[in-house]
Design a protein that fits this description.
Helix 11 (303-313) runs antiparallel to helix 14. This protein has 15 helices and twelve strands. Helices cover 40% and strands 20% of the residues. Strand 7 and strand 8 form a beta hairpin. Residues 1-22 have low confidence and may be disordered. The chain has helices at 33-40, 45-55, 58-65, 108-120, 151-161, 165-173, 207-224, 246-249, 265-272, 276-293, 303-313, 321-324, 360-369, 374-397, 401-408; strands at 10-11, 25-26, 84-92, 95-102, 132-142, 145-147, 180-189, 192-200, 231-233, 254-263, 328-333, 339-348.
């Protein structure tokens, strides 16, 4: 049986001037990376040499032969080397960590390191040094949608679904040993029902895990529903998968994590080159700006920088930066004149097992960050984002933002 056209892994590649528009290079689905590079660059020896030297070094080629990348990529032709720097050290919950950041943005590592230094010289109960961070709750969602003939049928369906938790637990356990069905919520929209299913996924990010479990539940619902289902979708758009939303700001997707620290005023002056009062006032101004813009959350800097850099370095899903890097930050002056700083991030998608965490370079970065589980990784990430916020807002207070980028970029 032939491969359906919609799955054909081929693309139209422009050839030399005058070539026929019908010329198509078919990328071989079997074979090795070198074969694919040869096929793609058949008429351009210089390009083939450059690609092989830059993306398919001997170590990468050896790793391919052992199946290292088999479950991570299709049409493999090599790897891209992204510079990795370490920010920190920073003390989180009494333990010292460094934070590997894979980025090409000059000044990022230096800025996060400055914030880490300020946090480590501060304190947060019960710790005398460094910041305190905690995962408040967790849950990964998938949201199937079902369409009915009328609103009354929607109501009957919702009442039935509310009695199915035990069945959903059982069906989930048939698809995974590591995940658990947690709870279900629903939204009625016209004659449609969006069913939001929450799962615990352990130390895995769990996006495939919850998809497989949801598919099992989805098929069961379609088979035994007491109400006729006119149409249905495994994902109806309400899971906020890799998309920031006000809905998940109020709940959770991944891990909801918060962190705080009290930075002495002397440290604010010596390390951040400003004052607690100036930082608090700048934060208010920037928050109002975000409100007028209609932004999700009130970050003044750009924790997306930290999330993306950590995700690339540590084998996480970089696309989850869009949802993970939203939240709120608070800067206040304490009665003693010091700075209280906190961050709340409700949608942090991280893992210490599965996905890209086991790839060679990414596994090395996971060793560097030195966390015991996904909760601790989320906590260190949150403190890293808070460090970034402290440093970037301080740079605006002291008018050093442009200067730092000019000198380092």
């Amino acid at each position: 049986m032939g491969t359906p056209a919609r799955w054909a892994l081929s693309q139209r590649i422009p050839h030399e001037a005058g070539s026929k528009s019908s010329d198509v290079i078919h990328i071989p689905r079997t074979g090795c990376a070198r074969d694919r590079i040869d096929r793609l660059t058949v008429s351009d020896h210089a390009c083939r040499t450059m690609v092989q030297e830059a993306m398919l070094d001997p170590l990468t080629e050896k790793q391919e032969t052992t199946g290292t990348y088999k479950k991570s990529i299709e049409n493999f032709v090599g790897t891209v080397k992204v510079p990795v720097g370490v920010a920190g050290p920073v003390i989180v919950n009494g333990r010292q960590h460094v934070i590997p950041l894979a980025t090409t943005e000059a000044a990022l590592v230096a800025s996060v390191s400055r914030g880490c230094k300020a946090i480590s010289m501060g304190s947060a109960p019960p710790y005398k040094k460094g910041g305190c961070a905690v995962v408040v709750t967790s849950g990964v969602t998938r949201c199937p949608a079902f369409e009915f003939s009328n609103l009354l049928d929607c109501t009957k369906f919702v009442r039935w679904v509310a009695t199915q938790d035990d069945t959903f637990h059982r069906l989930t356990s048939e698809t995974t040993k590591h995940g658990q069905f947690k709870e279900a919520f629903f939204t009625v929209e016209g004659k449609r029902v969006h069913l939001k299913l929450y799962f615990n996924t352990g130390d895995a990010s769990g996006q495939n895990m919850v998809t497989f479990a949801t598919k099992k539940i989805f098929d069961h619902i379609k088979k035994v529903s007491p109400v006729l289902i006119i149409n249905s979708y495994l994902e109806g758009g309400m899971s906020s998968d890799k998309k920031p939303s006000h809905g998940t700001m109020m709940t959770v997707r991944g891990r909801s994590v918060a962190a705080e620290v009290i930075v002495p005023s002397s440290v604010v002056r010596s390390v951040l080159h400003t004052t607690p009062k100036a930082l608090a006032e700048a934060k208010v101004t920037m928050t109002h700006g975000h409100m007028r813009l209609g932004a999700v959350g009130n970050f003044s800097g750009n924790p997306a920088n930290v999330c993306a850099a950590v995700y690339i370095a540590c084998g996480q899903d970089p696309a989850c930066t869009s949802e993970s890097s939203v939240g709120t930050v608070r800067f206040e002056v304490t009665d003693e004149g010091d700075l209280y700083a906190s961050i709340s991030m409700p949608d942090v998608m991280v893992a210490t097992v599965g996905g890209g965490t086991g790839l060679p370079s990414q596994a090395a970065c996971m060793r560097l960050i030195n966390v015991a589980n996904a909760d601790e990784l989320a906590e260190v990430l949150a403190v890293g984002c808070l460090a970034s916020e402290l440093s970037i807002v301080a740079s605006h207070c002291s008018d050093e933002f442009a200067k730092a980028h000019h000198s380092l970029a």
